[in-house]
Design brief:
The chain is an alpha+beta fold. It folds into two domains: 146 residues, Aminotransferase class 4, branched-chain amino acid transferase, N-terminal domain (D-amino Acid Aminotransferase, Chain A, domain 1); 162 residues, D-amino Acid Aminotransferase, Chain A, domain 2. 26% of the residues lie in helices and 28% in strands. It has eight helices and 19 strands. Strand 14, helix 6 and strand 15 form a beta-alpha-beta unit. The longest helix has 15 residues. The protein is globular. The protein starts with a strand and ends with a strand.
Length: 327
């Protein structure tokens, strides 16, 4: 990755305005390899390794407006996971967790966005087309932010979303490491999400090869039956979500009993409540699964956990202020 005016780079070696312009507005400042730069000054070489092979890792992090100003939710946990993912693929990030946390907060401040979605990304840059990039391509690191409201819509957060079971299966841990948030891993999710959209649904749940539930395209899956909260764990090929972990902690705070175990789709169909958790999706109820309605109870487990979660990220829960890093 290079910036315009940085050295002499032939115009034909860069991805330029000949590509289709984007339709969305993005924040003007991006942190790149240690410096904040204007987004319009960035250029990407068309032989960037990650562009061809998805050879990168990333995180999705939320920043929320609070009474004390913008605060990033569980920043250090996200950065630690980014660095762990990078180590698996041999990416040499070259920055400590403390450095990346400070860079994230500075990027939020510089862009002046209170409610933001933050995207740290580490990837193999321009170089060889070989499948051994760790010794052949540089590691590029960037942190970008953008405004983001309710990922699955305000109505979805309030009343629930329609979800389908995907015909695509989740990749097994013998194929790719599920605990790594790898760029290329999400091709699996893209197939399922596009299938769901074609069927008129907001989200899809992927099953494992053995027919048990894995996760949604970018969220973990919970259900409640007779007051018992259930979600699955590492053995189900999930990405152990940071929002998932937060919800399990909040359930303990509220005295809601919880168990982590594998389960099948038949338990979702029979459940009193089903909901999804993720940084983007936050805590979103499921109103229907494969056109079978599921109750969204105002005083139910989902609603209680959703209220507790939003109190937490907005700085209204003194028990979990340590989860907030103020920008």
């Amino acid at each position: 990755m290079q910036r315009t005016g940085e050295g002499t780079v032939a115009a034909e070696t860069l991805l330029t305005s000949r590509l289709h312009p984007g339709s969305e507005q993005h924040a003007p400042w991006v942190w790149v390899n240690g410096d904040l730069v204007r987004s319009e000054s960035l250029r990407m070489h068309y032989f960037t390794h990650a562009l061809h092979y998805g050879s990168g890792v990333f995180e999705g992090i939320r920043c929320y407006e609070t009474a004390a100003g913008p605060a990033v939710f569980r920043l250090r946990d996200h950065v630690d996971r980014l660095l762990a993912s990078a180590r698996v693929y041999g990416l040499s990030v070259g920055h400590s967790a403390a450095d990346l946390c400070a860079a994230t907060l500075e990027t939020v401040r510089r862009n002046g966005i209170g409610n933001a979605y933050i995207r740290p990304l580490a990837f193999f840059g321009e170089g060889s087309i070989h499948l051994t990039p760790s010794g052949r391509c540089p590691t590029e690191v960037l942190i970008a932010v953008r405004p983001l409201g309710a990922y699955l819509g305000d109505e979805g957060v309030a009343r629930g979303v329609r979800v389908v079971l995907s015909s695509w299966r989740k990749f097994d841990r013998s194929m790719l490491p599920p605990s790594v948030k790898g760029c290329g891993h999400y091709m699996n999710s893209i197939l399922a999400a596009q299938e769901a959209a074609a069927r008129g649904a907001a989200e899809a749940i992927l099953l494992n090869a053995d027919g048990t539930v894995a996760e949604a395209t970018g969220e973990n899956v919970f259900f409640a039956t007779r007051g018992l909260l259930v979600t699955n764990g590492d053995s189900s090929n999930i990405l152990p979500g940071i929002t998932r972990d937060s919800v399990l902690t909040l359930a303990a705070d509220l005295g809601i009993p919880a168990v982590v175990r594998p389960f099948g789709p038949e338990e979702l169909f029979a459940a009193d409540e089903v909901f999804l958790t993720g940084t983007a999706a936050e805590v979103t109820p499921v109103a229907a699964l494969d056109d079978r309605p599921i109750a969204c109870v105002e005083s139910g487990v989902t609603a209680r956990l959703q209220r507790a979660f939003f109190d937490c990220v907005r700085g209204r829960d003194p028990r979990h202020m340590r989860w907030l890093s103020h920008a």
